Amino acid sequence: MADHSVEITEGCRLPVLRKNQENEDEWPLAEILSVRDTPGKKLYYVHYIDFNKRLDEWVTPDRLDMKKLQFPKKEAKTPMKNGLPGSRPSSPEREVKKSLDLHVQSASAPSRGKTLPTPKRKAESVSLATQVTAATPVPSLPSSAEASQASVYPAMRDTSFSIKSRDEHEPLTSLTTNGTTSIQRHLIPPQPGRKRKSCGGTDEMVKMFQNNSPRCSTIYLLPGEDSQDSSDGIPSAPRMTGSLVSDRSHDDIVTRMKNIDCIELGRHRLKPWYFSPYPQELTSLPILYLCEFCLKYLKSLKCLQRHLTKCNLRHPPGNEIYRKGTISFFEIDGRKNKAYSQNLCLLAKCFLDHKTLYYDTDPFLFYVMTEYDSKGFHIVGYFSKEKESTEDYNVACILTLPPYQRRGYGKLLIEFSYELSKVEGKTGTPEKPLSDLGLLSYRSYWSQTILEILMDLKSENGERPQITINEISEITSVKKEDVISTLQYLNLINYYKGQYILTLSEDIVDGHERAMQKRHLRIDPKCLHFTPKDWSKRGKW
Amino acid sequence: MSKLSFRARALDAAKPLPIYRNKDLPDLTDCVSINRAVPQMPTGMEKEEESEHHLQRAISAQQVFREKKESMVIPVPEAESNITYYDRLYKGEFRIPKQLIHIQPLGLDNELPDYDMDSEDETLLNRLNRKMELKPVQFETMMDRLEKASTNQLVTLQEAKLLLNEDDYLLKSVYDYWVRKRKNCRGPSLIPQIKQEKRDGSTNNDAYVAFRRRTEKMQTRKNRKNDEVSYEKMLKLRREFSRTMSILEMIKKREKSKRELLHLTLEVFEKRYQIGDFSGEILNEVTVPLAEKTIYPAPISLPMSNRHKAESKIKSHKPVPKHLHPFTVKPEPHFDFVHSHKKYNKRPKLDTFRQPVRPERQQTINKADIKQYDFHSSGEEDYPLSPASEPDEENDPDGIFAFRRKAGCSYHAPLVDQSCTPHWQQTGQDRLWQRNCLTALSVPRRCIAVARGRVGRGGRVVLDRTSSDLDRALRHLDPDMFYPSADSIVPDLPVHTNTNSHNSKSSPQRSLTQLLSDIQACRWKFFRPRPLQENSRGEDKKGTPQVEKGGAAPLSSSVSGGFTEEQFHSHQQQLVQMHKQLQQQELQQNSTAPELHTHVPNAVSSDCMSKTLDSASAHFAASAVVNTPNNENRPQIASVNGVLPNSGSFRQAKLNRSGGGGESGSLVRMTNSSNPQLAVPQSLPHGHGHLSTVSAVSPAHTHHSARLCAPSPSALKLASVASSLDRVPKVTPTSAIDIARENHEPERLALNGLSETTVAMEVT
Q1: Angle between helices B226-275 and B676-697 (to 10 degrees)
Q2: Virtual CA dihedral for A134, A139, A141, A145, nearest 10 degrees?
Q3: Where do Low complexity bias regions lie (chain B) (predicted)?
Q4: What is the DSSP string of B557-582?
Q5: 143-162 in A: which are within 8 Å (CB) of B?
Q6: CA distance A505 to chain B (A)
Q7: Which candidate among A165, A259, B21, B411 keeps its CA 20 to 30 Å from the CA of A68?
Q8: pLDDT at B595 exceeding the cut of 60
Q9: What is d(CA A203, CA A205) in angstroms, rounded to the nearest whole number?
Q10: pTM, entire model
């Protein structure tokens, strides 16, 4: 019914042709994020709903299925203009689905899916809130209990904070322009048990703010940020610890779209996955050239050529703390070597959605993994690490560059990070949120590491071998929670005859053995020359 | 299974978990349902992304196959690794060192330019290379410097020249090229750079701004809420202390330059003395071009102390010093601060009245001349055209009762030297004549024996009559008989100096004729008011009785006449001689300007007279009491007087007085120009010359100028020094310098004391 005279605007949804991995045609639903009018033809930047942003791309009109075009919801348009994530990947449709999955009463879904008329928004949203509260099995959404808590809470803070905290607790009554956004957010029902903990009290509340743990991020941080957004337009700075953002409320359309077409780094041409704040004048280039060793960005091959006559680096500008075979690790201090750290972060941002470059690199150490050949030490991947982490993070950002992916380097990076933790005598965990690839990699590493231990346990004097979770954690430096979650994920924990036991099924054992055979890249702790520094005793990072 | 076993205990991380193989536990399936008791751990992913299609597929695939399947991996954008020109680009090989690589912390900074030449630059370089040899790095360095030196504004060619230090042709071509390129450049700089944050927070949400500086987080104890507050207070305190430091630093600097100025001034002064530039002409010649620039168009500022800075500003911001003239006849009493605003308002009109008359340039030079010797105690400037500001009431604890200096009034130190004069010991007639003088009244026209004049409140002149055995005889004296010739020329010639009492130390009992002859020979003082024949209005006021002070009979002086209480010193010979000259001059002057009733002749004579003055007489001059104007007689003219006097005439008058005092120590009839409009043009040049003369005579001038700025601490000190020096026959310049230096000290102290109120200085 829709013909080509209909103008496709930002926010429209329609099926878009894309090839899947088997090179088959698929028509996943996609959202138009941007329209580019080039002479001759139009280009549309589409986000495939339920697919990762890294697959977003510019498509020609012939790939659009105009017949199934859906026009943007009125509400979606405002957030678009405000740069608020009204039409983020978390599209209403999907949330509906998710809500249903998570046993939210279906009644709430259609009401939310529909447009809330702007003038009535507040009233409706309030009623919606109650509706949701009633409907949700989880007593965590703004309820009387929390409201009463909020009334106590402000007395302990200054006024501005009390307003904020009230917003946190009653997000639905304090809706402004981004009201729908917060409704959407709050319709994501928290998981059982999680909420109660986060509402524990003031102290915990505060902690929750600092603490970007996954359990609080979706629930508290987001509304908190919302309220900051609406507070007289004074933008607030994000927290200063960590390297990742889970809160995307500051996202505007700019950061949702890839801005660099192609990066040439050494032998490789990389297609960036996400936005990266390289100098704006460089974003229009077809190819951005990077010096392979110092990672300086250059606008042309000629410039790179010239640069290479002046750049003598053949390895990352740090101390080599590990070398085995061709694999080396270099440690770079984010404060002492700002230029390199920043260049590295800019590159990494192209492949890490949640990485934030808001603040300087001072509190981080960068561990760059390289592979040596006759030309020098080529960067393969890296991870960053806070010099001091209050939350047991031993990794902030971690990345294997795309050309090296799926070859075991990621696991090597992870392994190395835990080796460092072992030297430090601490357990650690990666900073959250994890990406999809991150989750898979970590799960895989944890599984293999834990299974390795479990399989190696021999029974002593005829008794059944046994181990505590703490012991596993100590041996591996994997944080206890991660050990438990891995055991759960592998379905190893069972309750048997009044106690918990670990059971190893055949397919787990087989799968593990097969995987370990493929895993030839390992970190050799003997090759690590690393002495941890106590950064807390230094004045600065 | 009992119901109880469903409520599984929480997983205890410290409790050993036995490990079973599935085959060992055939009955495990019975227990599977209990698994739910262990709370599901979060994945650590963002909720929204957790459900993404490819991830879910990959997870399920892993769970099903325990192994990654090629088709089940999460797809990512492709990457190519076949850059063919790689080996050409990255030339050379790098041998792996045996040891782990360890970088030197500071070894990486070589002076290579950040700018990288592009192909466009290469074209230019090739073109330039036809004429000269230019290496790419050289070119890049030039571009780099130009780029880094310019911020929002491009470097100018001149700056570029300094910056680059290259051959002119090369510089010009590269500069022009750079400017052109820079203008076409889309980015903010030719060297692409990450967008910097702006301090105003406007870039807080700019996606392209990265690597913002972390604001330092306060390291305070968690439990103390007020810790942050006190920390902030400490920070503030520190800031303020450092500000104080810088203020003090600046004060120190200022004081140093002031000392410098003083020394320089003294040096100039000495030089002038050496070359005999008594009239200031040489100085003027030298300073005129300078003066045009540097001299404030401010009045001859009689330095005020700090406390009255605000007021001083009000008064001094105009070049026309209405209140400057100490002899200005004013309707208000002298310390009337309440009416100051009123007066102030009047000024513009008065200015217009006055301005055309004033010879502008002379004035300026005069000011310069005087200004030169002004050392303000606190360094407050006479802001040339600063707007009038109201006196700051808050800085003035006494409110309206506070003592405020009046512009134009000179405040002098108390005369201590009187008491220590050697004449004090004199007795009888000599003493009588020392302190008193023969006084005559114009109406009724008769002598009223011996009297002494002093200045009462509001500048009134009070005559204290002293009884003596000569009263009777003197009463019948005809006031005119002393100057038979004067009547015919100027009937009211005001000044009659006396001869010196040193000389006339004769018998205690003197005859009337002796007396008369003494008077006639100007050995004794004689005061006779000027008859106001030209001024009928004066008569009206005449009857107003004067406030009587002491036991003396009240005498209403119908005309304004000042007494100058002086003491006589030495050098009478010279002085007598001078006096004679003076009289001649007076006569000449009066004959040329018959209407002039001022004491202008003195000024005329000053040039020749001054030559004979030595330091001691100058001392004397400096210590002379200045009479304040007497004003009650002629309100009409008073206003005229109030309007008209300019600094020139003031100076002149003042110097007349001191000069006269120096000459004879006798009664000087002070200037009261009934027609100053006429007086001014005539007297001005001379007045000026006169002043410089006196100042040139000896370092004692410093005292003189110090007197002008009376109650400033330095002046007070100077005054006492001056009086103590009275007996010193000759003050050497060096001693004067010493005095001046010494003098500088209290100034500084005063200044330091006041520095806390120097709010205006806070630059930060």
Answers
A1: 90
A2: 100
A3: 496-507, 572-589
A4: -SS----------S-HHHHHHHHHHH
A5: none
A6: 5
A7: A259
A8: no
A9: 5
A10: 0.53
